[in-house]
Amino acid sequence: MKRRDFLKRGLSVGFVAGTAFTINPYKNLIASPLASDYDMVAIRGGEADSMFDRAIEEMGGMRKFVTKGQTVVVKPNIGWDASPERAANTNPALIKRIIQHCFNAGAKDVYVFDHTCNEWSKCYTNSQIEAAAKDAGAKVVMGNSEKYYQNVTFQGGKVMKDAKIHELILSSDVFINVPVLKNHGGANMTITMKNLMGIVWDRKFWHANDLNQCIADFPLYRKPDLNIVDAYRVMKRNGPRGVSNDDVITMKAQLITTDMVAADTAACKLFGKDPDEVKYIAMAEQLGVGTSDLSKLNISRIKV
To answer: How many Å apart are CA 176 and CA 133, to the nearest integer?
Structure first.
C-alpha cells in the first residue's frame, strides 16, 4: 500500500531495518521517523487538534523541529479578551496539541506567552489558552511588563533597526509561531508576520512608523522555526478584535510551513484575499524573508 493510502486512513507508514510499520498519529502522538520534503502542508475539514496531528506528521513529525532537552516557546495570538468562538485569538485546542507534540518529541520545557492588547489576565483566561497550555504541561508566562524584554539590534530592515524582545524568544531553542488567520483594520490581514508584534514591547513604534514595513522588517531578527496558521474559525471582518460571532466563519483549516511569506500568501488565498493587497508580504519578500511564489514549493494538500 502506498504511503498516501495510509494517510487517507489517518495512518502513516515508517520503516525500521527495511520493515514497514504503521503509526497512528491520533493515538500516541508518535513523531514520524520519515523525512519529509514538503515545504508546506495545507489541511482542512477536521478538528483543530486532529488536523495538526495529521499535518505535522506529513511535515516529518515534530522531532524534525524539536529535539530532546530543548526549550520551546509557543507564541499564539492571545491579544484579546474574547472567547474562542470570536476567533480573535488562536484556537486553544490547537495550542494544547502543539505542546503535547513538543513534549513527545523530547522538549525539556515549553513556554507560552503573548504581549496582549487587552488586560493580560482576562485575555489569558477568556481565550482559554492559559488553561489549555497548562493542561498540556506548558509554563504560561506574562508579557505585560517591560522587565521581560531586552533590546536587540539587527541589520537589513528599512525602518526597524532594533527592538525590545521578550526574553523567552532570546533564550529559547525553538520558536513556534501560531497565529490565527483574521482580518485586520490597519494591516489588512494578520497572519504569521503580524503575530510577531506580540513578542516586542513597543508596538506603538510599528503603528507610527509605517506598519507594513515594520512587519516586513522584523523577521530579519529571527524567523520562527515553524509557523502554524490556525484557520479553524476565521474572523472575516472587524478585525483584529471583532464585534460579535457574526464576524466569524468556521473554515476548519490549517497551514504549516517554515516560510513566513509563503504562509501569509497561502493564508490570504485561503481567506479569499489577493496577497497583493497585503503590502507587507511583497515588502518581506524583497528583503529575502521568504517567497510568495507558491509554485516553487512542494505543498501537501489534505482534505480530511
So the answer is: 14
Helix or strand holding residue 207 (H, E): helix 203-208
Q: Helices marked H in the chain — which ranges?
A: 3-8, 48-58, 92-104, 120-126, 129-135, 167-171, 203-208, 211-217, 260-271, 279-286
The set of cell numbers assigned to 80 is 484579546
Helix (H) or strand (E) holding 102: helix 92-104
Q: Find out whether 292 and 302 touch, Cβ atoms under 8 Å.
A: no
Question: pTM here?
Answer: 0.88
Distance CA 59, CA 84 (A): 27
- Strand 109-112 relative to strand 71-76, pairing: parallel
**Under CATH, which number does the domain 40-303 receive?**
3.40.50.11440
Single-letter amino acid, residue 254? Q
Mapping DSSP onto H, E and C, the string for 139-159 reads: EECCCCCHHHEEEEECCCCCC
Q: What are the extents of the domains in the chain? A: 40-303
The answer to whether the peptide bond before residue 240 is cis (omega within 30 degrees of 0) is yes
In this prediction, the residues of the chain whose per-residue pLDDT falls under 70 are 1-35
Query: CA 253 from chain center: how many Å?
Result: 13
